[in-house]
Amino acid sequence: MTSGCVYDLHQTSDFDEIVVADADEANARRLVELVDDDRFRFESVDATDTDDIVRVLDDADYVVNGLPYQFEENVLDAIQRIGDLTGVDLNAFDFDDVLDRSEEFADAGNALWFANGGLVSTIALGMVACDRFDDVEDVNFYWGMWRLLTQTTPGLTDTVTYEHDPDVDERAKWEDGEVINDLPAFSERRTFEFPDPIGEEETYVISHPEPITFPKSPVAQEKNVDRIITRGAWHDEWKRYERTLHAANAFETDSIEVDGTAVDPVDVMQEQVKARGRELETEWKPPAKLSPETEWTPQTILSAEVTGSVDGQDDRAVFHFRQPFPFFDGHDITLMREYGCYVGVPLSVTLQLMADGDIDADGIFITETSGIDAEQYFDEMQERGFNLFAEQSPDSTIMAQNQN
Q1: How far is CA 17 from CA 10, 41, 42, 261, in A?
Q2: d(CA 400, CA 402)
Q3: What element of type H or E holds 375?
Q4: Which CATH architecture has domain 2-113?
Q5: CB crowding 318-356: b at 16 or more within 10 Å, else e
Q6: Could you say which residues of the chain have pLDDT below 50?
């Protein structure tokens, strides 16, 4: 996902030097060669070692954290030790633990935009939509995550299955001023019409933090929002896979002993999915040849549906946000790197907003408390080929105003 950030920094930023630090030297070096920019260089990093992260970040002014969430504490410790760093962080796990460190980060001169990436886009969608109303009842966020089961990476495979794990208590909704969590997997089902290539899909609650964080936004407080929920839709292959794990009671089954080794059923299935994904990640191809079996490239479409009242009349607003293809200007690239630009580009845009002084929050903060101008954010994203558009409805006062 951060490959998209790297490429956008190459295309749009004026930073003096940009270090791509990774444990996967072959792919990282290939990415650096692709951008063909003298400002970029590769540096190996061992994310299991905080000291090694400190070594890489020493003398840096800015940082983008795209490491898997398992290394979050190591990254935060390294930033804290160095101090005077400005950065963005795509992780969105362990909110309370991370945000509890905000004061010590501010004391050390650090500013870190947590839960960045695709979440900036959904929150900004909610801000833009809510701003059209006098009072808001419902804010519905939708993630249309459209890729085949084999079109994945290890991190994405773990994330999707985590979101469906019955033991996860992070599936939540906001209602009447409080967070209601521990919602069951596949619950709160609702049919929603995404733009092509997704179309009409049954969506259900996912473990994304918008219901927890969006109430902190000024616009949500000004418009007296009643309910907030985030739902998602995956390609049918993913839905069948996750429902099969549930039907087989795989999440609750004890490990099985095979040749003296304890084997977890879910881990076995996950490894099968990851193995094919790893094969595809080695196939750097021109964009037109990346996904011949489906005739479309994987993509994520983000949407916000808001209901409320305007001038005393009930109304509804729906905004969609779609990523461009190809993003890497036709260069040979892997399928998932093209897909991941919906996360990578917001990282680049928000980092540059911070560097330019358009965002002056300190410590550790989230999109809702960053002071971001949502319209400015979408202007930046649309300059890069992303598409923000409203669903048209002839009976909607808001959509008519939008057209004007």
Answers
A1: 10, 8, 11, 48
A2: 5
A3: helix 374-383
A4: 3-Layer(aba) Sandwich (3.40)
A5: bbbbbbbbbbbeebebbbbbbbbbbbbbbbbbbbbbbee
A6: 400, 403-404
